[in-house]
Predict the 3D structure of the following.
Amino acid sequence: METQRQATLNAARQAGFRNVSLLNEPTAAAIAYGGVIDQQCTVMVFDFGGGTLDITIMKVEGREEYRMLTTDGNMYLGGEDFDNEIVQYFLEDIEKKTGHNLSEDNKARALLKLVAEQAKIALSNDIPRYHETVYSLEALFGIQYEAELTKETFQGMFQGLLKKILEPVKGALEATQLTVKDIDRVILVGGSSKLPAVKSTLEKFFGRSNVVCADANPDEAIAHGAAIQSYRLNNGQPSNFQEVTAYPYGIEVLHRNWLWRTTRIAELIPRGQPYPYKTTECFETAYDNQTAVTFQIYQSKRGFHVDKFRIGLFTIPNLPKRMKGECQFELTYDIDRNNILHATTQGRNNIADYKKNLDIQLDNIA
Ligand SMILES: Nc1ncnc2c1ncn2[C@@H]1O[C@H](COP(=O)(O)OP(=O)(O)OP(=O)(O)O)[C@@H](O)[C@H]1O
Ligand SMILES: [Mg+2]
């Protein structure tokens, strides 16, 4: 996300680093697997974390060139959803064994979620059965409960979630017009990719058992790749990255139809746009004597006709007073090589000497 990238850059600069450049997580992961994958290949990076799933398809040429073709994902799918399924199982089990229904109790759910995550991690390592006395339930609710989960039950629990992980995989293939045969390797990244069912689901989908690379530790692949890249930079070894935007950028503008005024999103930068990238659009004031225009910046997960989320705003200040529409200016949106957004404006016609770098105020992330 824009805010996180900006915060990362600021933190690095404050810590005294000079020449900071950001590397995308999937590119870093592909670099980490450089010794394992072929010199020329197409890889899919499958990054499955606690709350999000990110899919990236990338062309790798030798050790130096990494070209992102597309990125897709689900911002609302991650390890936590697996924990929640297990919590649901425990709640039903508690009701069956003790007669207590705790499903509406948030405290109980939170306690069980911790147990669920432990059970998930234990069972995804090679143990046949998870068994734990949940003392906290006894202390808080006076309920004695032995949480038990066998590997067999565990493996059968996630059919719905496992189907969902394939949706962005298919989306990314469609966007690049590639088929499963064109993907040479799938690189697993992120804690949730350690679930054996995730690996087997992908192997089944791709129709090959050797397609998945999970040789290195998926938790460390990104940091490992970034370390290799900084070694290369320090030793003057050239590299060539082409990365693309994960979400489109747009601004909210007034839109007049024959009856009324509404707002709409003007998309300035599409999803999948290679960057650095610059684009310019022309706008005009909407009212007489309007001296400032504030634009809200939005991104979208599924396209602006479906959804949008605000990432910040900027204002074009001190415009000369003119009748509406007579004050025209060009707005240039610029994504730099760190995937950070900048905006500048330049007046047109009668205000051609008006020129400004605009200060983008990003919203805080939750
Ligand atoms: N051995 C394991 N088996 C299954 N799941 C695991 C294992 N180890 C960690 N996880 C899960 O991985 C998730 C955390 O992964 P990761 O550290 O990659 O997430 P993140 O990068 O913090 O989150 P995100 O990428 O979604 O923002 C948690 O849901 C955790 O329960
Ligand atoms: Mg992550």
Residues 49-52, 78-80, 117, 120-121, 124, 190-192, 194-195 surround adenosine-5'-triphosphate (ligand 1) (CB under 6 Å). The mean pLDDT is 91. The first helix runs from residue 2 to 14.
